Amino acid sequence: MNIRIASEESSSIDEYASIPIAFEVASVLDVTQASSNDTATGLVERSLEHPYTKDYDQLRGDSPLEWANRFDIDQCHFLVAFVVENRVGGAALIMDLPDVEMLEGRKDLALLWDIRVTPAFRSSGVGSALLGAAETWATSRGAAELKVETQNINVSACRFYESHGFELRHVNAGVYERLPNEVQLLWYKSLY
C-alpha cells in the first residue's frame, strides 16, 4: 500500500477531526507493582466481560475542534496520511509550548499529542508511517525524546508504542477526574 504523509496547517483542523479516534475496549492493562517500592514492573492484559467503545473526541474539551481552547493550535504541527487521495490518518505534535504541562518545561522534548487512523486502515502501516514522520519532524527541531500519553484501556496503542521502541516511564492512577477507572501511561522514545 502506498501511504503518503504530508504536513497541514491548523486551518485544516475540521478535516483532521473527521478521522475517527474511537476504538473498542475489549481488554485493559493492569499494572503490576514491585512489592518494595511500588514502581511499575509490567503490564498484564485482562479481558473484559463487557467490551465497549471509547471515543475521546466525545469528551468535552478533547475533540480536535476544541483544542484551541487549551493551547495555541497554530503552534501545533499536523501530519496527515493519504492512501491514493483518501485521508486515512493524522498526527498532531507539540514542542516548546510553555503552557503545555506534558512538555515538562523541556525544550528538547516533543509531544505526540494525538495520532488517529481511520478504522479500515488500522494495522496496515498508516500509524507506523505517521510515527516515523513524527520522529523525523521532532529530530529536525532538536528534540532528544518523543513522549506520548496513553491509557491502560487502549491496549493496541500501548502495544504499538512498545513495538516502536517507546519505554513506559510513568504510570499514574487517579489523574483523570472524569475517568477515574483509567490509568495514565507515559511513554518516551529516545531520538538519538
Structural overview:
With 192 residues, the protein is an alpha+beta fold. Helix content is 15%, strand content 42%. The chain has three helices and nine strands. The strands form two sheets. A seven-stranded mixed beta sheet has the order 1-4-5-6-7-9-8, with helices on one face.
Short recap of the structure:
This protein has three helices and nine strands; from the N terminus they run βαβββββαβαββ. It has helices at residues 13-17, 126-140, 155-163; strands at residues 3-8, 23-33, 40-54, 77-83, 86-95, 109-117, 145-151, 167-173, 183-190.
Strand content: 35-45%
Average of pLDDT: 94
User: How many β-strands, per DSSP?
Assistant: 9
Poorly predicted spans: none
Silhouette: globular
How are strands sequenced across the largest beta sheet? 1-4-5-6-7-9-8
Q: Kindly report how far apart the N and C termini lie.
A: 29 Å
- If you compute it from the alpha carbons, what radius of gyration comes out, rounded to the nearest whole angstrom? 16 Å
SSE string, helix = H, strand = E?
Answer: EHEEEEEHEHEE
Largest sheet composition: 7 strands, mixed
Q: What percent of the residues sit in helical stretches (DSSP H or I)? A: 10-25%
How many H/I helices? 3
Coarse structural class: alpha+beta
How is the topology of this model organized?
Elements: E1 3-8, H1 13-17, E2 23-33, E3 40-54, E4 77-83, E5 86-95, E6 109-117, H2 126-140, E7 145-151, H3 155-163, E8 167-173, E9 183-190
Parallel strand pairs: 6-7
Antiparallel strand pairs: 1-4, 2-3, 4-5, 5-6, 7-9, 8-9
